[in-house]
Design brief:
Blueprint (H helix, E strand, L loop, with lengths): L1 H8 L3 H9 L8 E8 L12 E5 L6 H23 L19 H15 L6 E5 L6 E2 L2 E2 L14 E5 L7 H10 L3 E4 L7 H10 L4 E4 L1 H4 L2 H13 L3 E5 L9 H9 L3 E5 L4
Parallel strand pairs: 1-10, 3-6, 6-7, 7-8, 8-9, 9-10
Antiparallel strand pairs: 1-2, 2-3, 4-5
Helix pairs in contact: 1-2, 2-9, 3-4, 6-8
């Protein structure tokens, strides 16, 4: 229907979405490439679900895509050199799925790949913990201990660090960290949960998935609600995504400035 509306008006799809959202000026987003897969998206034993790179220092979207692709291929070389060729198989979201246990080890792989590609000042790291996947009876079931390393890579964006119903955990975490805390399972692009999360100060960024809320109109409403609370908004694909390009137009039309994408594998 949205595409038909754009065709009827004779304007690009992103412009039609921008008009629906009341946005006159457009911006291109910073892509967050999912380059290491774990959790339920891979066959390895890595607890955290996604490790991402964000080329925040790029001067244009074209440059961001190039940097992302270069770091991705650099990462392949780093993984192959350390674990062998078989470790470069990819997971559900196009990221590599090496058979590693420690989350810090995945972060160190990213740090090495970013440095090797020559972009230590232009690329930062994000994570999707997907904590609901390993929360059992109110406890987080991890079969290893990984104490924080102050010398390790800095993570600037973290998604779903606690179970979707662990509101107190979210509140404490956001109050203690000075980074972007993204709600996906917490909010499920639902205005009622977004409002509650805002009132409780549980997160400061919405992960927006169109087919999670069900319509473009509701997606626009969810985006506007999140932004009214001073949140960031990151438009996202879904695991096992098709090659449909609609969310590319959506993120430009909504002017969210962030889009989560799979690894540039194909």
């Amino acid at each position: 229907v949205c595409k038909a509306g754009a065709a009827e008006k004779g304007v690009p799809l992103y412009r039609h979405i921008a008009d629906l959202a009341g946005n006159a000026d457009l911006i291109l987003p910073v892509p967050a490439f999912n380059v290491i897969n774990g959790g339920s998206h891979a066959g390895n034993k890595l607890a955290m679900q996604e490790f991402m790179i964000l080329p925040v220092g790029a001067g244009s979207f074209r440059e961001a895509m190039r940097i992302g692709a270069e770091v991705y291929h650099s990462l392949k070389g780093v993984i192959k050199g350390k674990y062998g060729k078989d470790a470069t198989n990819v997971g559900d979201e196009g990221g590599f799925a090496p058979n590693i246990l420690e989350n810090n080890e995945a972060l160190e792989l990213l740090k090495a790949a970013i440095a090797q590609a020559g972009y230590p000042d232009k690329v930062v790291i994000g994570m999707d913990v997907a904590a609901s996947e390993f929360c059992r009876g109110g406890r987080y079931d991890l079969d290893f201990k990984s104490p924080p390393d102050p010398r390790g890579p800095t993570v600037v964006s973290i998604e779903d660090p606690f179970d979707q119903d662990d509101w107190e955990g979210w509140q404490r975490f956001l109050a203690q960290v000075g980074i972007q805390v993204v709600g996906d399972d917490l909010t499920v692009t639902n205005p009622k949960r977004i409002q509650r999360a805002a009132e409780l100060r549980a997160c400061n960024c919405l992960l927006l998935k169109v087919n999670q809320i069900g319509s473009v109109t509701e997606s626009i409403q969810a985006c506007k609600l999140a932004q009214s609370h001073g949140w960031g908004v990151m438009v996202s694909h879904r695991s096992g995504e098709t090659e449909d390009t609609f969310i590319a137009d959506l993120v430009v039309g909504l002017c969210t400035g962030q889009v989560r994408a799979p690894g540039p594998a194909r």
